[in-house]
Amino acid sequence: MFESSEHFAWLILFVPLIAAGIITVVTREKPRVSAQISIAAALISFLTTVILFSLLPSTGFEHPVSVPWLVIGDLRVDIGLKLDHLSLMMALIVTGVGSLIHIYSAGYMEGERAYSRYFACLSLFTFSMLGIVLADNFVMMFIFWELVGVSSYLLIGFWYEKPAAADAAKKAFITNRLGDFGFLVGILLVWATLGNHLNFDQLRQHLADSPGNYGAVATAAGLLIFCGAVGKSAQFPLHVWLPDAMEGPTPVSALIHAATMVAAGVYMLCRVFFLLDVPGSHALEVIAWIGGFTALLAALIAVQQNDIKRILAYSTLSQLGYMIMAVGLSSPKAAMYHLTTHAFFKALLFLGAGSVILAVHHEQNIWKMGALRKKLPVTFWTFIAGTLALCGVIPFSGFYSKDSILEQALEKNEITLFVIGVFVAFLTTFYMSRLVLVAFFGGERSEEAGHAHESPGIMTWPLRILAVFSIIGGFLGIETLYQRHFQPELPAATVGFMAELFEPFDNQPLSAIFGLGAIIFGFFLAYACYWRTFADPLPAKLGWFARAMRNRFYFDEFYERVLIPATQELLAKIADAIDRWIIGGAVQATQGTTDLFGRALRLVQNGSIQTYAFLLIAGVALVLYFVLAK
Predict the structure, then answer these.
(1) Cβ pair 229, 235 in contact under 8 A
(2) Are the C-beta atoms of residues 257 and 312 closer than 8 Å to each other?
């Protein structure tokens, strides 16, 4: 049955693109129709993915779903779809969470002048992200990788009239290009080393049959490919674009920061994990430490942010660090597990933040909120569910996925990374408890907070649905599904509900105990600092360190004042000197030589018949002389 249905997979990919085209060309002046078309396209992609996922054999789809695109000599590139547990599960996340964000957007963005343009860009972004997820080769993945960059530029800069939004869009686009350059070089290195193959299955087979010289370049190739993830998933040192992307509409923040763009880097690493986990390669070690450092750095910065969206943005950075660390610890299963649960609760938190922002008349400073729990009951309780899942409280979904990463660190005997992971769990609980206590409890801190009211149903129902998945996500068999893909040789254990509830304590009790201990300590410390307070006590207690956290450890200033002048401006001066003195000098020398010959010839061409007759006779005489002399 599946073999007769696999071509419906093209619907998953192309329906959002068709919707973007129709909105742009036909319904641009009909905003409500444009929203309906975009939402319908996302739902069709989601339902088609559900059907294909339910029909997927346990071994995955064996026959390629592809059409030839480019054939040059031995090089063959197809536009093909990779249909297996990994791609279809990721497609479920993109289309499922994306559909809820589409529906939420219809209420949040109502009244916007460019309502239709927003939904056209949203559909284009969904198409681009699905292209990455379903790609079966590097070329197709890279094409859609760049399309995600373009469509995210359009969404982040949606309010391009605001200088901050326009600058944030440019910053995201340019920063990602740096990582993408390394990604492209890595693809070329893999292609040149592994028999001119670009298809993932062919690369895996070639690497298994005849690794050849790949072992010698495995570290370099792995790190170059990782550059793409550093850009898209905003890892250190290219992490600076992600917080500024908050200048886009809040639903865009939910889409980019939860289920799609930033998850693309993690997904890509898991898809090509066989190129990273090879004998002699040290790429995974670097990846693990970059992920751990990013998780710690972002969590520290989040502690002193006051913008509700920026707190969640740095939280996303920190959780992405967890995922990247899991890949580096040779556990793509744990990385994808946390990516999946994170999509649920982080989309919920961003959409909840949007509901709060709308209720307080677009105020984003948490110190100008307060006492919102009674005025926004649905938003409050769903936000609490997302917060508990993010912090990793048992039995919420985040507990199980985060514990799988900490457990892997212990199994690999990476004690330092384990300590970093536990400390980040403490910081996560601290800054999220700070956000909740300041924004939802205490007294009203502004007039806007006093007039807040609950959002309409079109915005609160997606919150309810995401809250349910944030709670039960640890019991849906997600980890088992990813284990079936990454470790098919291991039997899938079937356990009861209670056994599954406390399974982390049986597998690796230290990771579960330390993780929960960090949560408890983080909450009580936040409660002691922020319960019914009207000012942040940390700046007075921590001094310069609090200022450094608030100012993001001055990375943006360092890049602007030191790194860019030392690289971009220096290169611009060198290029100007080469252009002015070498290229320009060569052009002027050529022009001067031509001018000199022209002036000499002009002396001969003077219009005098006597001169022409003399030159003719002299020429004939020279010819006769050479002929007779010979």
Answers:
(1) yes
(2) yes
Phi, psi (5° rounding) for residue 219?
Answer: -65, -45
Find all residues with CB under 8 Å of 68, minimum gap 6, and list them: 76, 78
| Burial tier of 141 (Cβ tally within 10 Å: 0-12, 13-18, 19+) | buried
Type of residue numbered 383: F
Is residue 431 a contact partner of residue 303, using CB atoms and an 8 Å limit?
yes
- Segment among 83-97, 297-311, 381-395, 558-572 with least mean pLDDT: 558-572
Band (334; pLDDT cuts 50, 70, 90): very high
Give the H or E element holding residue 65: strand 65-72
Using left for φ > 0, alpha for ψ between -120 and 50, and beta otherwise, residue 245 falls in: alpha
For the cut 50, the answer to whether the pLDDT of residue 115 exceeds it is yes
Say if CB 85 and CB 484 are below 8 A apart: yes
Structure token pair of residue 10:
């093209």
Locate 109 and state its tokens: 């963005």
The pLDDT value recorded for residue 1 is 42
Residue type, 135: A
Asked if residue 546 lies in contact with residue 539, where contact means CB atoms within 8 angstroms, the answer is yes
603 against 457, higher pLDDT: 457
Q: Pick the closest to residue 426 from 347, 326, 318 (CA basis).
A: 318
Would you say 322 and 291 are in contact if contact means Cβ atoms under 8 Å apart? yes
In this structure, what token pair is assigned to residue 323?
């995922």
C-alpha distances (whole Å) from 493 to each of 485, 487, 508, 511, 622 are 15, 13, 16, 21, 104
Longest CA span, the chain: 117
Please give the backbone phi and psi of residue 365, each rounded to the nearest 5 degrees, phi first: -80, 120
Task: Examine the pLDDT at 92 and tell me if it is beyond 50.
Answer: yes
Task: Tell me if the bond preceding 537 is cis, omega within 30° of 0.
Answer: no
Determine how many CB atoms are found less than 10 A away from the CB of residue 3.
Answer: 11
- Listed residue (537, 531, 540, 538) closest to 370, CA to CA: 531
Note whether 366 and 306 are within 8 A (CB).
Answer: yes
Helix segments in 26-70, DSSP class H: 31-55
Q: What DSSP element (H or E) covers 77?
A: strand 75-81
H, E, C per residue of 254-284:
HHHHHHCHHHHHHHHHHHCHHHHCCCCCCHH
Which string of DSSP letters, residue by residue, matches 542-576?
HTHHHHHHHTGGGHHHHIIIIIHIIIIIHHHHHHH
Condensed to tens digits (0 to 9), the pLDDT of residues 493-552 reads 555 455 566 666 666 788 889 999 999 999 999 999 998 888 889 999 988 999 999 998
- Give the whole-angstrom CA distance, residue 131 versus residue 368: 41
Q: In whole angstroms, what is the distance from residue 525 CA to residue 306 CA? A: 18
Q: What are phi and psi of 404, to 5 degrees?
A: -65, -30
**For 531, phi and psi rounded to 5 degrees?**
-70, 115
H helix intervals, 109-213: 115-134, 138-156, 163-193, 200-209
Structure tokens at 549: 């956290």
CA dist 379 to 310, 356, 376, 430, 595, Å? 19, 7, 5, 21, 79
Strands 75-81, 65-72: pairing is antiparallel
